Amino acid sequence: MSSPKLYIPGPVDISPATYAAMSGPNIGHRGKDFEELYASIQPNLRTIAGSSRNVYLSTSSAWGVMEGAIRNLVQKKVLNLCCGAFSDKWFSVAKSCGKEAEKIQVEWGEQIDPATVKAKLDEGGFDVVTLVHNETSTGVLNPLKEIAEIVKSYPEVLLVVDVVSSFSVVETSFDELGADVMLGGVQKALALPPGLTIFAVSEAALERAATTPDRGYYFDFCEFAKNDEKNNTPSTPAIALLYALKQKVDEIVEEGLQNRYARHAKLNEMVKAWGTKHGFENLAPEGYQSKSLVTFKNNLDIDVSGFVKAVREKHNFLINGGYGKIKGTTFRISNMGNETEASMTELLNALDEVIPDFLG
Ligand SMILES: *Cc1c(COP(=O)(O)O)cnc(C)c1O
Questions:
Q1: Structural domain tally of the chain?
Q2: Mean pLDDT in residue range 93-110
Q3: How far is the CA of 69 from the centre of ligand 1 (A)?
Q4: Separation of 97 CA from ligand 1 center, angstroms?
Q5: Which whole number is the average pLDDT over 102-107?
Q6: Which residues contact ligand 1 via a Cβ below 6 A?
Q7: Containing domain of residue 135, as a range?
Q8: Does position 143 have pLDDT exceeding 90, yes or no?
């Protein structure tokens, strides 16, 4: 069977323009050509990130920087805001790094309530908060602005935000949020091959990192800052992915950020409307629903894995049958990356054709 077109919430399909960009020449990363490539990515990447500071480039998946943020910044205790597979895991990662960690845990499918964050921080002793903006497992979009505002009112507490699946889908302005670390993988909403993570770091976070022992080398934020001053990275980066990133950030700025947000909102509405038409409920509550994907509840009790398989076999489209402990009781459809009204219509028509076989 040929590779299916991906409508899973990452990795997503890669455009021919991105593939073409990746075939650029290999270059020595300590030379002028590389510095020019790195510097050429920054203006548009900073615009998309809403950052007046350069955005660092880590050759790793997002978890590298998520773990790195813990190792660089936690000296006392981290508060992990947990509402799904990725945010829950951040708590266990913090503990596996030997750090003191506490969590606020809500049910999968619920959002983090800013008031509980405030109450917890009032207990004292915390110096870092981690938040997953768009919890890709549950399709919940957390109230980032409200939570950032609260964390900001505790000067010794740094806010680390994962925007892996919301970056360039909805506005996430690093400067306006006053976040301390904002990180995004590239195989989700940026529609690049996996292997690169972009991250912005505040001055306060760099000052903290400089005094944190045992932060290692590969993800040492101070090393990233020092090398960034020379338009460079601490170790040999995935140069092909940097070419891809350059192509993508230029494309996004050309599309226009507001247009891109509007496109994703529209496509997401199409997916939601498909579910409503067939009687599937959204796992995420009204007001906190992702614009990148929809996580549907399997409230009609269909054979989810059979459905996913049939969609693939009959139409060569891949959707996702639920992540982690909600596999089978939910299913997910992504509208991230390069999707258009036409490409989403094709998928939804295919789903329309297959779904009657699975409804009682
Ligand atoms: C995919 C994802 C991650 C993990 O990314 P990796 O690239 O597998 O390290 C983290 N957070 C969120 C919200 C994600 O969707």
A1: 2
A2: 98
A3: 14
A4: 18
A5: 98
A6: 10, 61-63, 86, 132, 134, 136, 162, 164-165, 185, 188, 194
A7: 16-254
A8: yes
Tens of pLDDT, residue by residue over 59-75, are: 999 999 999 999 999 99
Ligand 1 nearest atom to the CA of residue 165, by list position: 15
Greatest Cα pair distance, the chain, in angstroms, is 64
Residue 346 has pLDDT above 70, yes or no: yes
Q: Are residues 66 and 20 in the same domain?
A: yes
Residue of the CA atom closest to atom 2 of ligand 1: 164
- Domain stop point among 254, 286, 315: 254
Assess whether 156 and 195 both reside in one domain: yes
CB of 164 closer than 8 Å to CB of 183: yes
Which of 245, 226, 227, 244 has the alpha carbon at shortest distance from 236? 227
List the residue whose alpha carbon is closest to atom 15 of ligand 1: 136
The pLDDT tens digits for 200-234 are: 999 999 999 999 999 999 999 999 999 999 999 99
- What's the one-letter identity of residue 234? P
Closest CA relative to residue 251, chosen from 14, 87, 80, 39: 14
Q: CB–CB of 191/211 below 8 Å?
A: no
Encode burial over 14-39: b for 16+ CB neighbours within 10 A, e otherwise: bbeebeebbebeebebeeeebeebbe
Nearest to 27 by CA among 191, 181, 209, 232: 232
Given 227, 254, 281, the domain boundary residue is 254
